[in-house]
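Recall from the previous lesson that a structure prediction takes nothing but the amino acid sequence as input. Here we apply that procedure to ABC-type transport auxiliary lipoprotein component domain-containing protein from Gluconobacter wancherniae NBRC 103581. The sequence below is the only information supplied.
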Amino acid sequence: MKFSSASLAIATLLFSGCASPPIHFYTLGAPAVPGVAPSLSATTHVMAVTRITLPDYLDTQDIVVRDGDQIDRSPNGRWASRLSQGATDLLAARLAQSWPSVFVTTQPQSGTPDNRLSVNVSRLDITHDGQGTLEADWAIIPRDEHLPIKHQRAVFTTHGNVSTDTGNAALTRNLLEQLASRIAQTTTP
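The prediction returns the following tokens.
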């Protein structure tokens, strides 16, 4: 069977039109913490940040917006990791900046940390109109069982442009940074 060059060109154009747009991956922007890391010694205070818990429908790589009861997934934007992992990394990085003399870590340690930070996000909604809301509670759990567990709860809001996945990522980061700031202000490690 012989094909003319015009037939091949048309077939190529038809097949290239079927290609989907490329997937773009986003992070919450938790680069290595700048500055001097605390020198670790036997007396360095250690704060272990456990993985943040999120509602199941959010703890994916999907970037989503909410429209009432409907959740719309981005067709070509994804988180680089599960949202809970990216949020935990961002929170730990910001707390390390706020508490420079404390060793803040998300990694398992050979010994028991002085405190553990446990965060539960019960709501993290970004709507089509750009309204962002985060509701969270957290607990500081001391190594010493005789000391009380410190509980806190807060709601954060922000507004921005979510017409792109970049805007959605920025709004999500803003809400999580508000949470990190509140934890740093209300907690003595």
